[in-house]
């Protein structure tokens, strides 16, 4: 079992179970279509942290961003500041994929993704854009709750960000499925 550094989750296991199996008519419909909730597990995705400095004409901005370090396909994770010691815990777990991106490729991806986000807010507002990414030391894992549901041989997976209390979409489910089905 590996020891990892993780953000402290804001959602407990019990809260995740409630979220994955709501009461009332909506929960009954979900159980009928997708099957009952069978189990809930924690899952940790490694992120590389970067400090991004952006110069746009005479304006300067700094951002702290996390880039998923397995394949680099997830959206950037935004932080208001570098997470402090009170926001980070050590966890002994096997439920995490290994980081596979090298530092150079990760730096290229974070700049590319961040610039794409800037351009989507208004390409014509950008003048003399310069973006520099500085890698911060150590990977930081983001905790997720995974709900497994189904009946018989069919299984369905739901994933919730345990920090932001937000249901995740296909990209996180695909990363999880790739990790689960990879040869040991």
Features:
alpha+beta, two-stranded antiparallel sheet, 4 helices, 8 strands, 27% helix
- What are the segments in which pLDDT stays under 50 over at least 5 consecutive residues? none
Provide the domain count: 1
Helix share, percent: 25-40%
Number of helices: 4
Fraction in beta strands: 35-45%
Number of strand elements: 8
Structure classification: alpha+beta
Order of helices and strands: EHHEEEEHEEEH
Shape: elongated
Give a description of the structure.
The chain has a six-stranded antiparallel β-sheet. A two-stranded antiparallel sheet has the order 1-5. It contains four helices and eight strands; from the N terminus they run βααββββαβββα. By secondary structure, it is α+β, with helices and mostly antiparallel strands. The longest helix has 18 residues, at 103-120. The mean pLDDT is 90. Helices cover 27% and strands 40% of the residues. 24% of the residues are buried. It starts with a strand and ends with a helix.
């Amino acid at each position: 079992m590996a020891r990892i550094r993780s953000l402290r989750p804001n959602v407990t296991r019990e809260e995740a179970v409630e979220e994955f199996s709501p009461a009332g008519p909506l929960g009954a419909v979900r159980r009928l279509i997708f099957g009952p909730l069978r189990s809930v597990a924690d899952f940790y995705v490694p992120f590389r942290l970067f400090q991004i400095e952006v110069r746009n004409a005479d304006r300067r901005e700094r951002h702290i961003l996390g880039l998923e370090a397995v394949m680099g396909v997830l959206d950037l994770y935004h932080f208001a500041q570098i997470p402090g010691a009170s926001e980070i815990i050590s966890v002994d777990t096997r439920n995490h994929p290994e980081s596979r991106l090298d530092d150079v490729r990760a730096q290229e991806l974070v700049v590319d993704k961040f610039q794409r986000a800037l351009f989507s807010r208004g390409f014509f507002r950008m003048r003399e854009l310069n973006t520099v990414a500085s890698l911060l030391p150590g990977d930081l894992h983001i905790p997720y709750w995974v709900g497994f549901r189904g009946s018989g041989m069919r299984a369905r997976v739901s994933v919730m960000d345990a920090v932001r209390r937000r249901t995740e979409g296909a990209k996180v489910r695909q990363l999880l499925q790739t990790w689960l089905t990879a040869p040991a």
